[in-house]
Design brief:
Elements lengths: L5 E5 L4 H12 L3 E6 L2 H13 L4 E5 L5 H15 L4 E4 L16 H33 L3 E6 L13 H22 L3 E8 L5 H4 L5 H8 L10 H12 L10 E4 L9
Parallel strand pairs: 1-2, 1-4, 2-3, 4-5, 5-6, 6-7
The structure holds nicotinamide-adenine-dinucleotide (NAD).
The site of nicotinamide-adenine-dinucleotide (NAD) has 30 residues, from helix 1, helix 4 and helix 6.
Length: 258
Amino acid sequence: MNHGRSVVVTGGGGAIGSACVRSLCQSGAKVSVVDIDFNRAKVLANEMVAAGFEAVPFQCNVASFDEAQRLIDDVYDRFGYIDGLVNNAGIMPHQDVSFATATMDDWREILDINLGGTVNLSRCALPHLKESVRRRALPSSIVNMSSFLVLLGARIPQDGYTASKGAIASLSRSMAVELGEDQIRVNTVAPGPIETPHVAKFFNTAEARAKRIERFPLGRFGRPEDVSEAISFLISDKSAWITGVLLPIDGGASCNYI
Ligand SMILES: NC(=O)c1ccc[n+]([C@@H]2O[C@H](COP(=O)([O-])OP(=O)(O)OC[C@H]3O[C@@H](n4cnc5c(N)ncnc54)[C@H](O)[C@@H]3O)[C@@H](O)[C@H]2O)c1
């Protein structure tokens, strides 16, 4: 499905990011595994290479424009083209609670990484995404990472995080329109709670898990692969006429009234 594509995955060493790297590799892509934690990226890239896939680790703090530019230059030098970008890196800090109590420093950190990282990488990759369209005569593809929290309120608020993910969803639609004439597609995924160490901290008792699972028509938490397979499809030419979409991946939670 993604044979020959050169795809950059940020936060590639994390729970969902690792699944994205695996899904993209298995579908034939050459993957740049990007993380602020180089060791995580390296371990995963080594695992992919040992399994016969093409993956290269890179270190980058996506919140820094200069680091993003250096990263994209390095990826281009390594692969010679870039036609896919997954802006997955993100944080959900525990001190981020209600807007009424979170500090502006908390807000800044979240916005710099979640929203700023998405902007930095997209901006730096843009000339290469355009160049790939000229070469292949097929659309390039960006997938941005939002959250189902942009569709629903939550009793346990994470307002900075939710606002950052809402901004990403709106920005993505605008980018999809802006970049349509360049044949660059921009889509966004909005996952519900995925079984990751991050989320396990919130649902750490059987009772808390059961109460939450009741909300999901499909009766379980999500798995990283539920997200990564959708992302692999959105990166691929199988979704060649899909752009500007905000895709909930939440077991039906966002359409469940009670
Ligand atoms: N886990 C969920 O239930 C869930 C639900 C909806 C959306 N998301 C989003 O999915 C994405 C991945 O989440 P996850 O659960 O895999 O988290 P995770 O913490 O396992 O992975 C995030 C990765 O991003 C990296 N990272 C953090 N800051 C970075 C920076 N400044 N520059 C580069 N890399 C950085 C981390 O080192 C980590 O490897 C995030 O954007 C998150 O908001 C997660």
